[in-house]
Amino acid sequence: MRRAVFFFLFLVYVLSTDASLRVEYNTSLAPEIINTEKIEGEEYFNVFELNKAFKAHIKEDILDQRLKINIYDNQLVVLINASYLFHGNKLYNCGQPVLARQGKYYLPVSFLTDILPLLYPEQISYDSNVIRAATPVDSSIRKIVIDPGHGGKDPGAVGFSKENYEKDIVLRIALYLKKLLREKTDLDVVLTRESDDFVSLQERTQLANRANADLFVSLHCNANLSNKVNGIEVYYLSTAITDEDRAAEALENSVVYDFEGGEEAVKRYDDLAFILADMAQNEQLVESYELSSILQNNLVSSVDCRNNGVRQANFYVLRGAYMPAVLVELGYLTNKEEEKKLINESYQDKLAQAIYHGIKNFKYKFDQIQ
Ligand SMILES: [Zn+2]
Fold first, then answer.
1. Which of 112, 147, 139 is nearest to 32 (CA)?
2. pLDDT value at position 369?
3. Is the pLDDT of residue 4 over 70?
4. In whole numbers, what is the pLDDT of the chain averaged over residues?
5. CATH numbers and ranges of domains, the chain
6. What is the pLDDT of residues 91-140, one digit of tens each?
7. How far is the CA of 252 from the centre of ligand 1 (A)?
8. Angle 209-215-370 (CA atoms, 0-180°, nearest 5)?
């Protein structure tokens, strides 16, 4: 009789708890549990369990009704409300549709037990309720390169007063920005220069690529033949469209002609390697655009200035970067009033804080959706 009671209690326990799958790693990493739940009679799990178990990076694309899931540095595209997913150019069927419920996304358990072992045979296998997996690859934003423009023999833009240089202003802002990011985030921060040194444009992106950086933010002040022009604009890479964008592009690129060896050097930047690098940067366009928008909005709402908007240009310094990359023009030194603001340290601090918040927001958006 007692046995029957125990059995009954056991049955109640089994039926009342949601099921789960255990993930064991081939290293000393502690096992994880993926919680599953029944929805419309089928076993499902919240897509964020993938973040927990595989450090997957999940991005929601509402317009196209799909989720982009990055696991082991490899991207899967899952269609919402459909049972299909793409991996490379191959199409797979999960059997059950991916569901959206109150802003959360649920994948069928067959995604874990059948699809993942099929797509990642080297890393993932499944047997009797246990998933065995290789150590997850973290694809969240971890490292950022901050690039204070110009330096050393290259002063960059020269102020209306002829007394202030772009290279000094952006260096001070970059150093403060680095301090903020180091103190308040877990980001690894690298500067392309920490003092008044000349660094070629190519060296700047090479440093970012070698460091395996996840973001590249280049800081500048602008100049214009007309001293009336003022305001802040953030650029991301593309072939420049408007005349103003081309002017900024010519100005920032002129360092190559002026300080890196004239036409020979310009030709070097235009060779095949850079065309290939362009293609790499194209893949980062959406992220680069998002980062530019966030930075632009944060900057213009933090200080009193003209909002020149997000723009596209073909800057050499962005072209070689294999990660989302933007160029921030913090104001026009050739404008008398803006020069006065830009040399003011508390104004510089406000700009650095605005960029810091922007990077933090972008990282939050990029690393996870809720
Ligand atoms: Zn510049």
1. 112
2. 45
3. no
4. 87
5. 15-133 (3.30.457.10), 143-367 (3.40.630.40)
6. 899 899 999 998 899 999 999 999 999 999 999 999 988 999 999 887 78
7. 5
8. 135
In terms of average pLDDT, the best of 70-84, 224-238, 293-307 is: 293-307
Q: Find the Cα–Cα–Cα–Cα dihedral 243, 247, 253, 257, rounded to 10°.
A: 110
Please state, in angstroms and rounded to a whole number, the distance separating the CA atoms of residues 239 and 253.
13
Both tokens of 126, joined, read 């499944």
Instruction: Work out the number of other CB atoms within 10 angstroms of the CB of residue 99.
Output: 17
Average pLDDT over residues 307-313: 91
| 3-class DSSP state of 27 | coil
- Ligand 1 centroid–CA 362 distance in Å is 24
State the distance from the centre of ligand 1 to the C-alpha of 222, rounded, in angstroms.
Answer: 6
- Selection from 105, 89, 33 nearest residue 97 by Cα: 105
188: its two tokens: 């690894």
Q: Which of 117, 129, 61, 43 is nearest to 87 (CA)?
A: 117
What pTM was estimated for this model as a whole? 0.71
218, β-bridge pairs: 147, 327
DSSP 123-174: TEEEETTEEEEPPPP--S--EEEEEE--BTTB--SB-TTSS-BHHHHHHHHH
Helix (H) or strand (E) run with residue 189 in it = strand 188-191
Q: How far is CA 42 from CA 22, 97, 271, 334, in A?
A: 19, 10, 55, 65
Q: How far is the CA of 326 from the centre of ligand 1 (A)?
A: 13
Average pLDDT over residues 320-332: 90
User: How does strand 188-191 pair with strand 143-148?
Assistant: parallel
Look at phi and psi of residue 270 and say left if phi exceeds 0, alpha if psi is from -120 to 50, else beta.
Answer: alpha
> Rounded to the nearest whole angstrom, what is the distance from the C-alpha of residue 351 to the centroid of ligand 1?
16
Q: Contacts for 112-117 with beta carbons within 8 Å, 24 or more apart?
A: 112/21, 112/34, 112/45, 113/21, 115/85, 116/71
